[in-house]
Amino acid sequence: MTLDGPVPDGPLPAGDAEQLAAARLALLCGARRQVDIRLPRLDDSHYAGLGEIEQLRRLATSGRGAHIRVLLNDPASALRDGHRLILLMQRLPSAIQVRVPVEETDLGNPSACLLTDAGGYLFQPDAERPQGRAALADRPAWAPLRQQFDEMWERAERARMLQPLDL
Question: Which residues are in the DUF7931 domain (predicted)?
């Protein structure tokens, strides 16, 4: 799937790694001011492509109300690996916030999701497997995912190790 033409409405294909990457990019392109991301582990197969990083940068610098929230179980490995999203977060800490789940039920949750303020979502029941479901705008399916994300966000702690040092 390319984004050269009009973005398809309704469900997006999300059955393999290539389709998941295309769905992520389409969702990021459709977001206006807010994105929520949940990942157990951030590696080079997630949010590391130039298009994804450019769209996240666009969102983060879009002005008032821009907000990207990331729930990440293992921020230390992403920091150690120099992941592009972590580097972007450190440059734009007022717009991109990262939290770490601390409760066992949240830490044991293997799922991943991307939620946009346009009602779009990408959900993977198991983040390690390249399968999921996605839609550009589907509020009925988006709402329970957003509620679960918000609850996990409230229970999580700030990822202090990712804070840039003000020297």
Answer: 17-163
